[in-house]
Amino acid sequence: MIEQINLGKKEDGSEKNKDTATVSIEDISKVAEDLRNRIAEAQRQKEENIEKQLSEIDRLRLEQKNNDELILEAQNALNYFDSLDQASLDLLDEEGKKQLEGLKEAMNKLQDQRKAIDERMNAISDNTEVFSKIHDLATAEDKEFEEKKQDEEKLKGLKNEIDELLKEAEKAWDKKNKYINLYENRKRGEASKSPYEKLDSAFHNGINMAKKKGEDLKNIKEEIKDSIRKNKEFNFIEKLSELRKQLGIFSSKDKAAIDYVINNEKEINDGIEKVKEYNTLQNEIYNEDPENLGKKYKDIISRARQVNIPTYILNDRMEDYCKNEKIGDFVRGIMYN
User: How far is it, in rounded angstroms, from Cα 29 to Cα 4?
Assistant: First the structure.
C-alpha cells in the first residue's frame, strides 16, 4: 500500500528541484472533506436564504391583502364624499374638514405602502432561484387544487350512485311488498294464493263436467301454463274448438264442458295475465334483491377506495336509510349481505 506521494521527484526518481514536498493520503482526504463541507455549508446557507425570502414573500402577500382591504374601505368612503358637490362639503365644520383631509392622506399612505410592497416582492422575485421556487410551489398548488377538484367531482358522482342505489332499493322493497301482498300473505291472515288460482278456476268446473274429455281439458290448461313459462303464444280457443269438433252427437256432456271453458275466455285471459304479472314481479325482485343490489353497493365502495375517497361518507348515507322503519332491514341487507 502506498503511504506517501512524493511531489518533488520525477517519475524516474531524479530530483525536480532542490525543495521537495510530500503529502500523505490522509492530508488529501482531509482537504477533500473540508472542501465538500464548505460546498455543503454554502448550499445549506443558500437554501436557507431562499426559504427566508419565500417566507418574506408570504408575509408580504398577507400584508398586501390587508393593505388592499384598507384601500378598498377607504376608497368606498372617499367615493361618497367625491360624489357630493362643494356646497354640501362646505357644510362640514373645521373638525369635519380635517377628518376628511386625514382620510385622503391615509389613502395616499396606503397606496404608497402598496407600491413599496410590490417593489419589495419584485426585488425578491428577481432572484432567479427564488422565482423558480415560487413557480414550482405555485405549480404544485395548482396541481393540488386540480386534484382536490377532481376528487370532489368523483365523490359527487359516487354520492349520486348511492342515491340511485337507494332509489332502486325503495322500488325493490315496494315490489317485494306487492308480491307478498298479492301471493304470499293475503290480508287478515288468509292462506297464500297460487298465481295460477284464477286460471285453474276458469277450467275447474269444465273439467268436472266432462265425461271423457276431462284429461284433454287438463292438458290444454297445462299447455297454457307451459306457454307462459316459455313466453310463447298459444291459441287455447282454437285448441278447444278443435277438441270439440272431434266429438260426436252422443258427447253432449263433453261438448257442454268444452263450451263452458270457451265461454270463460275472459277469465282465462285474466288468469294468464295474473301469472305473467307474478312472474314479472318474481324476476324483478330477483334482479333487485339485497344480494344483487349489494353487489352494486360493493362496487361503488371499491371504486371509492381506489381513488382514496373516505368510504364513511358514502356509508353514512346508507346508515341513515338503515334507521328507516320501512326499508331499514332491506338496506341493511344490501350493505352486509
Answer: 13
